[in-house]
Amino acid sequence: MMSTTPEGGPGIRGGVTPYDAVILAGGRAERLGGLDKPGALVGGRSLIERVASAVGEATRLIVVGPPRDLAHEPSRTADRSQAEEGAGVRAASHEGPEAVDGVVFTSEDPPGGGPVPALRAGLAQVRAPWLALLAADLPFLSAHHITALFLAARAGEITAAAGAVLVDDDGREQWLTGVWRTEALADALDGYRGRSLYRLLGPLEPVRVHLPAPGDGRAPWFDCDTMDDLGAARERARGA
Questions:
Q1: How far is CA 41 from CA 52, 148, 179, 194, 213, in A?
Q2: Phi/psi at 29 (5° precision)
Q3: Of residues 182, 189, 223, the one with CA closest to residue 203
Q4: 208 lies in a domain?
């Protein structure tokens, strides 16, 4: 897999194809004592609100998890018809969960079944040819980072890249911080019965994108798995 550090400006209007966003916001957060992790506040906003703001240009925001107060205004700059028709995309039926304030909430089967069933549930609601697949606990992810992922993925179109994922400073892929061709994920999920995201997504050989972490520790891949992580995120947000 190619590793790259793309250069890109803020925002994602520069020719990036229409995309939907899938945020995985289920699970029990056992290492946080059962806390509602997506709803935990960092810098005055919930974690899931911060992630949703990074994909504000998405034509459709899909949350796999319990309904909550979260609004999304679909991108006015994207071509909706292109997003819905998406050449080659096997779109799901338009029947299914209802949108609340512009957000589609759905749940995995079985509930709490892990990221693969959650991805399957989210993908069923995707209409666009591309999607962003994200965890709900990324306090420092921004639209600029989403831009960088799309630029890297599109740069690999000659070699039919399935997508692009962030890698951390140790070179580890962050499977829930990436962008993907919808068709590639649908193909990968066909017949897959495993529970590992790595085994599902790794064989797709996405472009690996390394974005140097800023000196303040607000790395785009930083997630809040523990109370210490959450405390660190709050401290770093105060210093922003």
A1: 14, 26, 25, 33, 22
A2: 50, 50
A3: 189
A4: yes
Distance CA 180, CA 192 (A): 17
Q: Is the pTM of this model over 0.70?
A: yes
CA proximity to 59, closest of 81, 33, 78? 78
| CATH code at position 102 | 3.90.550.10
Domain containing residue 195:
10-238
43 — alpha (psi -120 to 50), left (phi > 0) or beta?
Answer: left
Question: Tokens 């649908």 belong to which residue?
Answer: 186
Side-by-side strand order, sheet with 99-100:
3-4, 207-210, 163-167, 173-181, 130-135, 19-24, 60-64, 103-106, 99-100
Where residue 102 falls (left for φ over 0; alpha for ψ -120 to 50; beta otherwise) is left
pLDDT digits (tens, 9 = 90+) for 37-89: 999 999 999 999 999 999 999 999 999 999 988 877 665 444 444 444 443 34
Per the structure, the count of domains in the chain is 1
